[in-house]
Amino acid sequence: MELYVHIPFCVKKCAYCDFLSFPQGEEIQRRYVEKLMEEIRTVSAGFHDTPVSSVFVGGGTPSVLKARWMKELFDCLRASFHIEETAEISMEANPGTVDREKLRIYREAGINRLSFGLQSADNRKLKALGRIHTWEEFLDSFHQARIAGFTNINVDLMSALPGQTVDSWRKTLEKVLELKPEHISAYSLIIEEGTPFASRTLNLPDEDAEYNMYEATAQILREYGFEQYEISNYAKKGRECRHNVGYWIRQDYLGFGLGASSLYGKERFANTQDMKKYLENSRTPEKIREKEPPLTREDEMAEFMFLGLRMTRGISKAEFERQFGSEIDAIYGDVLRKYKSMGLLLEEKGRIFLSRDGIHVSNSVMADFLP
Q1: Strand, coil or helix: what is 104?
Q2: Closest Cα partner for 8 from 283, 280, 257?
Q3: pLDDT exceeds 90 at position 334
Q4: Which of 299, 331, 339, 362 can pair with 295 through a Cys bridge, CB separation 3.0 to 4.6 Å?
Q5: Alpha-carbon distance values, 243 to 53, 100, 137, 239, 333 (Å)
Q6: How far apart are alpha carbons 277 and 284 in whole angstroms?
Q7: How confident is the model at residue 81 (pLDDT cuts 50, 70, 90)?
């Protein structure tokens, strides 16, 4: 199985962000880490013998925590779970929030993959997004990570920004690619309700420009030796994010911390987003968990389809039949024929996957598999 650990703290909320994150002082940060470790120790009691293939620490900005607290957290995880020696251990970090000493301690804690939230190589764009760092600070953080021994680094980038052109997006990609990261996550900006961006009039690229940015991403990254393995993710060979692939193939995972989600067997549940409630009850999982009804067979089949189709390799017809005891055409034949006839779904060697045109309307295609 996999483990996810949520650190909700950040230096400052970005103008586009609707994640569960917020600034907070060191006193609350420390108390939260202590309660997080209490939750981990309590929940782990039933999972000591279950091998853990990946751990992902996300946020927020996990790197705002004191490094020694992160080390304590990982000591707790390793004492509580059977984390495999070859496990992928990822942590998100913001440029400007790490230094040589922090990075050294992360390596000592066993973290072997860093994910830097850059978003843009243009300082004016970074300022407009509300980011706390500059391109130059990102460069320093990236180089310090290499010096510290990190050989698996992801860079998060965001396209379709206000005032962005296809040409300026290409320049961001090329500047980042010169650094030779192992992985790039490239997302289009989505304006979420309740964010500062939602209340502003923004000069956003039109649909054609956004389409061209997406296609340029795949083309340029391919030229630099990256393979697109998921709708928004590109990696050098063998450097796919194993943790995220686990989500898309519905591997069991446990989430710890404020608002963290879990999937175990047929159960889906999420922790409360109420900090006071979490801090008071982290040792009593049933008091902080908000459970969903158990997954039905129809729910599981739908998840198999719409999560699996996020990956460019798509889904295996044989695996569907193995898991659910029915041929895929008996369940989704009409939907599959519909999108194959439109050229949005393709089938090859027993796998069904989105075409390039299908990727651009993936949300609509995937919605048709929902019960």
Answers
A1: helix
A2: 257
A3: yes
A4: 299
A5: 8, 26, 27, 11, 31
A6: 11
A7: very high
Copy the structure tokens of residue 28. 């609350």
Please tell me the distance from the alpha carbon of residue 176 to that of residue 184, in angstroms, as a whole number.
Answer: 9
Cβ-based neighbour number of residue 318 at 10 Å: 12
**Token pair of 326, please?**
């029915």
Structure tokens at 208: 């054609």
**Cα 366 from chain centroid (whole Å):** 19
Whole-number Cα distances in Å, 202 to 128, 196, 333, 358: 11, 11, 42, 28
Amino acid (one-letter) located at 92:
E
Q: How crowded is residue 25: how many other Cβ atoms within 10 Å of its Cβ?
A: 8
Other C-beta atoms lying within 10 Å of the C-beta of residue 279 = 17
Rounded CA gap, 326 and 319, in Å? 10
Q: Does pLDDT of 212 surpass 90?
A: yes
pLDDT band at 100 (very low <50, low <70, confident <90, very high): very high
| 52 and 81 Cβ atoms separated by less than 8 Å | yes
CA–CA gap between residue 166 and residue 212 (Å, rounded): 7
DSSP per-residue codes, 348-360: ETTEEEE-HHHHH
**Does the pLDDT at position 18 exceed 90?**
no
Q: Does residue 368 contact residue 333 with C-beta atoms inside 8 Å?
A: no
| pLDDT > 90? residue 230 | yes
Tokens 């040589």 sit on residue:
100
For the chain, the residue count is 371
